[in-house]
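Rotation project, supervised by the postdoc (A.L.). Task for the rotation student: set up a whole-complex structure prediction and record inputs and outputs verbatim in this book. Inputs entered:
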Amino acid sequence: MTDDPPAGRPAVQPVPALAVEGVSHAYGRRQALADVTFAIAPSSFTVLLGLNGAGKSTLFSLVTRLFATQRGAIRIFGHDVAREPGEALRILGVVFQPRTLDLDLSVMQNLIYHAALHGIGKREARERASSELARIGLADRLHDKVRDVSGGQMRRVEIARALLHRPRLLVLDEPTVGLDIKARADILAHVRGLVAQEGVCVLWATHLVDEIADTDDLIVLHQGRMLAHAPVPDVLAQTAEKSARAAFTRLTSGPECEAGSPT
Amino acid sequence: MTMQLAQRRGFSLAQYAICLKGIIWREALRFLHQRERFVSALVRPLVWLFIFAAGFRQVLGISIIPPYDTYILYEVYIAPGLIAMIQLFNGMLLSLSMVYDREMGNMRTLLVSPLPRWYLLSCKLIAGTAVSLFQVYAFLAIAWFWDIEPPLIGYLTVIPALILSGLMLGALGMLVSSLIKQLENFAGVMNFVIFPMFFASSALYPLWRVQEASPLLYDVCRMNPFTHATELIRFALYAKINWESLAVVCGCLAVFMVGAILAYDPSRGFVARRGGPGGET
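Outputs recorded:
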């Protein structure tokens, strides 16, 4: 009943926070993901970079078990999403790209509802929600309807909600889409703070190159295929480029990409 | 706070109960917030009762058929059918709210809960049925002043029937919602599910009358689960049991529920094949 690493994996290595192994996914004939394999370490901040349609959201739907994995396997801290969905999902926090808060309910009611879905009672949920919201400076908006808070605040509420059940892995799908520059910077700084202070592991999907920091791990996804996975300085070295933007451009126009699917 | 390495596996009964309570609580809040939904749920059957039944009273004679012991007014005859209609609409609105949730992304919040998916859908169904019970009693209270006065014990004995028929119609709605990809298609479902089910049933006219008119339609009515929901309620309202209807309602509930659970199963369901909740890739 402990977190033993699955058989076949060297016991000395820490269990990856998220292991994606040979995952392919197709919608009918359209291949959305082709043989994607990577593992991200606990307490790291990994950026999943890709253009719209690169397969980021499909990958999120597979990690969160909205779709079943067609080929390959996904493990969250060693728990296979398909075989032990309960154990995998309970340590996973998710912020989806579309807003998923109930606009007619108050901020607090939304958080209590989410907590209930994780089997956390009302009193405990209230305490956790108050402290989470205080941390993001929304303590005074507790009882406001979600409809009345701004887009940036909604996102922060969604992040607070995703942390309510104290996940060890937090995945965010383009969380800054549609937000102004300040709200974007605030949210990014907040999530980076979670990694530094709480040791949460974060997978941050985006198509915005300027959200990448030099200390991050970077995964480049293009047309369903993974083109790179390394710390940012290594990716720059591999591509002999100075900026992440240039590295991304080079990778996505490189020969290995064209071999798979011409652009 | 995130380093609880030795977490207990599985979920306790108390956690299951908290989840059920949370889902019912949210459904109740949504219901309270949408007052027009409650009003229209109440006005719809009352219009049938006050206007349609009054007009038809002279046209249709009702003979003494079980569960009634005496001649009854037409209003009294259609009351159980109207109760079933309330539940049918409620079931379809549950389905509408699931489609809406899916489009708005709220459904994802439910589906990424670590509790088993069949349990989450059952909770949703129970919550919807609880709301329908509330609507039915509001209707019965008003109908009392319109001379629809079943025996007092009937108000108690009808509860199990209402729970069963509410669950059955809710499960049907859930199954339907898994088939709808987009919100706009719902109007079509109303036309193709609600109206045929309501009219081809024993809600508005006794089936022996239908048989006189068309044996084929009679067979269709007898196969309609809505007929059996209506009859189950009709008998229960007079503290009697219609065993055949009870069996059909329970059977349909099981079939619709299994269908809905399979439809929402990520590995088998239509939902994944259709691009998933949210409808995008």
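Student's summary: Chain A is about 35% helix and 25% strand.
Supervisor addendum: Strands of chain A lie at 18-27, 30-40, 45-49, 71-76, 79-80, 92-95, 169-173, 201-206, 217-222, 225-231.
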